[in-house]
Amino acid sequence: MKKSKKSQKGVTSKDKNKGMGKEKEREKKSSSLESGSYNYKMFSFFNRKFKINEVEPPSDVNKAFSLFTEDGSTHMTAEQLRRFMAVHQCEVSTRLEDAQNIIEQVVNRRHHITKFARHTLNIEDFFYFLLSDDLNGPIRTQVHHDMSAPLSHYFIYTGHNSYLTGNQLSSDCSEVPIIKALQNGVRVIELDLWPSKDEILVLHGRTLTTPVSFIQCLTSIKEYAFVSSPYPVIITLEDHLTPELQAKAADMITQTFETMLYYPESDLTEFPSPESLKYRIMISTKPPKEYLEVRSKDASEDESSPKDDSDASESDQEDEDFKSLQAGVSGYKRLITIHAGKPKGSLKTALKEVTDQVRRLSLSEHQLEKLAGSHGLDIVRFTQRNILRVYPKGTRVTSSNYKPTIGWMHGAQMVAFNMQGYGKSLWLMHGMFRANGGCGYVIKPDILTRSADELFDPKATLLPVQKTLKVKIYMGDGWRLDFKHTHFDAYSPPDFYTKIFIVGVPADEAKKKTKIIEDDWCPVWDEEFSFPLTVPELALLRIEVREYDISEKDDFGGQTCLPVPELRTGFRSVPLHDKKGVKHKNVRLLMRFEFV
């Protein structure tokens, strides 16, 4: 019976007694690998030795190598590799020079031979290439969507309360999570602005969160806005400022961003495109018109009333102050590119209302779910021209997230997430925005932007299958390099299995699971699964590796999520990530994708 990992004292205490540092531990691990086995101590008395199995190419890989080398040759030339890429991997644009470059990189990495020494691959080299995710990854890494459509035609990578380092009630506010979000490709940053005497602070209002200064957040956004993507950054402001501080905020924004700041000369009737807004920053918030309207009305009433000389002098000064304030607030309003605000009537009326100016509407996840039940088509229609932002409900005090697919199904561009945590919902968000080179903008499928006569109904259930995704999982490797040999189990090698999910419209959702491979750091499953898809444009493929534990919760071995429309067919190396979405250095799966 396999023992669960409850203690590693048998190994670590022995190492400590010998005075071994981290360097010696690495040397010991390296020696163990070279000897071809792992030793596990049980109760400090028994020594269990497990042989390390050599990682060998699956039979399908051997067959493909033989098919494209022809005549029983043991080496694949550049031209043969080009044909393999074009025919088997469906990369028809592969040039001979591309194939030669792949060969040079593989030979240099494996044999440390200069690029002039060898121009072919043997079967081990070929297998190494297939397992290299930087050379043979599952999706394209370049921007390839049409970036000239209006902003409303894209899903946009959106953060919620972007300044929080942890929970929604008592964590610190900082520019650090904003920087991390921008480095990871997030394009929409949310800041909550609150007054503190003459200062502007960013914090989660009416909680115990500690504030960070507004100018510090702006400076960080300017510095990191385009480190991962050249496409526009949108700052959504939840504004609780006085008119005086709004004017001050406008000065801070213009002085910080200077020419990077984009704002139109008049209200927009159509949003500009991401391509036209490269390296620009935009502001989205509620215009401060209500205050100005009230003050203007009060001023006009005062003008009609009789005044003595002292009152007139005081009134003149008030008028000057008001005009100055009005100019400042008008300057603040002028900077707002994407106008937000609550509808004057009901949400249902707002969705159906047709106006010349485009705008942004915000709904909580609960509001969206409720409206989607009865007005799904209206939501889809609204998001064809306007922007819909969805945010987590207020009870998510631990900074958890909701399932994002309901927002995407209805065309919501800004599905706002707490980026500081982790979990399955956030993995889905990561997966969606791995599309289009990870630039933070993913063009919506045609079904969400076409004419009203062909409008997509998210509630439709009897949709025909458009295509079937066939997924074959051959094997996994890399855990022995990224983890200590007792990480998963103190007494034996791990027992890995893989779970594969389709996440999308309800009709397409599915779950499959491989068999458990016992006591093997390089598990070979060699299993194939089929997933019929009615709306493949909105489907995500989620993959999770677990390590079976008979007495405790199964251990986590890695995960990834990939957008189905972006999958490259053929053999692919699929890198896995940790729970927070950080890519492991060596852990990956060899898989094959096919659409039929």
Automatic annotation (TrEMBL):
Protein name: Phosphoinositide phospholipase C
UniProt domain C2: residue ranges: 450-578
Gene3D superfamilies with a match to the protein in the record: C2 domain, EF-hand, Phosphatidylinositol (PI) phosphodiesterase
Comp. bias intervals (Acidic residues): 311-321
Organism of provenance: Gossypium laxum
Enzyme Commission code(s) on record: 3.1.4.11
Co-factor requirement: Ca(2+)
SUPFAM superfamilies found in the cross-reference section: C2 domain (Calcium/lipid-binding domain, CaLB) (SSF49562), EF-hand (SSF47473), PLC-like phosphodiesterases (SSF51695)
